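Tokens for chain A. Residues wanted.
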């Protein structure tokens, strides 16, 4: 009787919700196998001052006060009540009570977030709302997920303040860049999941503009040589050529002035080395003759031009006259003259050496295509592959300045890799990995306020007329040039030029030309 009364009393307590904000008691869905990081359903079996017990799958999980909520609470009973159904995350096995677990209610949001992030992929485009503005970026909320957009990914042009581009509550399109879902650890707060996104990836990319630029171009000529056995001297090759022309032995003897016995000996030699078969040319001899004819044609034509190894690909080759060959820029752009009192244009000795060291199939297609028509290129390709012909690049004089056009993005990619742009209209910053210039000439300028010289130098890029300061002054070691003729420096106006130090320059004075070398993107 007492047992039934006690059971009824306990049952009535369970049926009565002890807290207005507690969840109703329902039949719970099946739980997965318990393991660290698993999200499961449980029921509060005990609430202490600073901890609680959750009944789950025939065992119990201990939940400390710090794992009950992500906000500070005075007592566990402020959040939980006995009999309340909850979701919890299994953290680690209990060391004090084998068979039981340590759990967390606070980690449920993190696990749910990981589940949603796992359904996304890098490159996926979504729509969200700007949630917060931070000093170096913004957060966007899309559903229950939060994405961080670094300031560099907010627009194609440099952004100084996030509020200049977006506002809180603004709906924006964005692209998922990176998803961070670390392996689950008991100390989950130390390795939270997250997502980085880009707004600019969903915006139209700025169109590159062509700007004139000069380079030091290396004059070169193309040399060719047919590869053949040392036995095939000039006399034997001449006789083969006569046979290929359809001349008889008597005609060959007369044309070459070789006595008949000597010619007979030559013909026997050609038979022995496989050049003739029963007095007729073999496929081997025909191939050698064809390669020899092509080599002679190339050498007599004296093919050559100028090659600017440091120019943008597509703008490197020019004719001997300095006119660019098959340029990528519009034909209506006129090629300017390079100022004679400026220093020698950009060049790279190592790149020049690599160019001269190319031969055979290593020679750029743009060079072969410039000199030979499609039929000759086909013949050349065949002999290069079977090694019948050797083609080389040879130096043909000293460097000459060549003016061409390059894209400003190619220039800016190099400059942004080591400098920061200054001024109100800072140029577009290409994304990491964009192909960039390897060598540039800049004018180092002294910056002055109204009277005094400022400690920071400013560099002028003469072709785009943009201004730059070193990122970490002293880290670059440019080569200073002797010429003292400079392009005009920009007028800074009444507002002046605000430098990164906060100082405002009111005028610039050119000091020296500097040659900078930039690391490649590879």
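Reply:
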């Amino acid at each position: 009787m007492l047992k039934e009364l006690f059971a009824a009393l306990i049952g009535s307590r369970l049926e009565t919700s002890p807290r207005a904000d507690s969840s109703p008691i329902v039949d719970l869905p099946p739980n997965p196998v318990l393991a660290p990081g698993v999200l499961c359903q449980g029921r509060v079996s005990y609430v202490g001052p600073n901890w609680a017990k959750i009944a789950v799958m025939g065992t119990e999980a201990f939940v400390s006060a710090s794992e009950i909520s992500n906000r500070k609470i005075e007592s566990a009973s402020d959040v939980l009540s006995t009999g309340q159904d909850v979701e919890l995350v299994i953290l680690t096995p209990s060391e004090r009570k084998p068979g039981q677990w340590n759990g967390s209610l606070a980690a449920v949001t993190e696990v749910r977030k990981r589940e949603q992030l796992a359904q996304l992929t890098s490159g996926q485009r979504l729509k969200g709302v700007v949630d917060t503005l931070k000093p170096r970026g913004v957060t966007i909320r899309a559903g229950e997920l939060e994405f961080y957009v670094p300031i560099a990914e907010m627009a194609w042009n440099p952004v100084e303040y996030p509020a200049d581009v977006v506002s809180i509550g603004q709906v924006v399109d964005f692209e998922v860049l990176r998803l961070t879902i670390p392996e689950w650890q008991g100390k989950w707060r130390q390795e939270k999941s997250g997502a980085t996104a880009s707004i600019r990836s969903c915006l139209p990319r700025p169109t590159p503009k062509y700007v004139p630029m000069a380079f030091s171009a290396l004059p070169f000529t193309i040399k060719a040589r047919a590869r053949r056995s040392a036995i095939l001297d000039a006399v034997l090759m001449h006789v083969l050529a006569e046979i290929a022309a359809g001349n008889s032995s008597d005609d060959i003897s007369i044309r070459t002035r070789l006595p008949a016995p000597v010619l007979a000996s030559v013909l026997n030699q050609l038979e022995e080395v496989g050049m003739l078969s029963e007095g007729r040319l073999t496929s081997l001899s025909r191939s050698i003759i064809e390669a020899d004819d092509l080599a002679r044609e190339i050498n007599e034509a004296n093919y050559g031009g100028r090659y600017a190894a440091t120019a943008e690909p597509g703008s490197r080759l020019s004719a001997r006259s300095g006119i660019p060959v098959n340029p990528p820029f519009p034909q209506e752009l006129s090629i300017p003259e390079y100022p004679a009192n400026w220093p020698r244009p950009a060049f790279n000795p190592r790149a020049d050496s690599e160019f001269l060291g190319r031969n055979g199939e290593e020679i750029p297609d743009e060079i072969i295509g410039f000199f030979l028509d499609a039929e000759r290129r086909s013949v050349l390709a065949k002999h290069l592959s079977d090694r019948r012909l050797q083609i080389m690049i040879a130096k043909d004089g000293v460097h000459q300045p060549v003016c061409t056009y390059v894209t400003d993005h190619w220039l800016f990619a190099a400059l942004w890799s080591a400098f920061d742009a200054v001024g109100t209209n800072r140029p577009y910053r290409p994304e990491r990995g964009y192909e960039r210039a390897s060598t540039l000439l800049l004018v180092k300028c002294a910056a002055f306020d109204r009277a005094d010289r400022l400690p920071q130098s400013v560099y002028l890029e003469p072709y785009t007329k943009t201004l730059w300061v070193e990122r970490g002054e002293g880290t670059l070691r440019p080569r200073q040039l002797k010429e003292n003729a400079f392009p005009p420096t920009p007028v800074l106006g009444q507002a002046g030029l605000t430098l990164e130090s906060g100082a405002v320059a009111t005028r610039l004075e050119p000091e020296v030309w500097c040659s900078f070398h930039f690391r490649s993107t590879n």
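Residues 283-301 form the longest helix (19 residues). The chain has five domains: 27-106, 115-202, 212-222+302-403, 231-272, 406-517.
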